[in-house]
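Exercise: predict the structure of this protein bound to fe (ii) ion.
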Amino acid sequence: MASQDKQDAITLLTEDHRTVEGLFEQFEQASDSQKKEQIARQICTELKVHALLEEEIFYPALRGKIDDDDIDEALVEHDGAKLLINEIEASGAEARFFEAKVKVLQEQIEHHVKEEEQESDNIFSQARNTEVDLQMLGQQMAARKAELMQIAGTGASRPRRPRRWRPHDGIGPKKNRDPDRDRRRLRGRHRLSGEPAPHQRRR
Ligand SMILES: [Fe+2]
Ligand SMILES: [Fe+2]
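Solution:
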């Protein structure tokens, strides 16, 4: 495996995809419910951090340089996955439909990964044909990933309570990071891409 500081953005994201695929396999093979729950939580954390990296750094860097419709579709697919992630994290392995939800999440992610890295004219191959500095982007993403993983790890040691994760809100990277805000982004529910913001809703 390439050392983190030498990974370009696509290598980093591709490795994340393989990691999650491996975890889904482990989930399938696990026989006791406690183990399944632990792996499912790990899958959710990996996916949340991965999606944030793409939404904050990778997709915005490509916006206007590759087919924007592909980015929009990817963001909507992220939102779809987040609904299931929220439900999986809020329940336990004994809950009805727990395994079915993880299975459907796996299918959604497999479809999404194909569009990012396997189908013809996929997002990653389009990205390689741009002028975007993928090496620099990779360094930025590796640093951000370490930060988000640390925040996610801190959260795991807190008392357990139902956690919901907010889907993509369409904003780009922020210069002044607020760890509390990141914690909320990893743990709190938020509106979907197409949903009106709270101040736009009719009372
Ligand atoms: Fe991805
Ligand atoms: Fe993605």
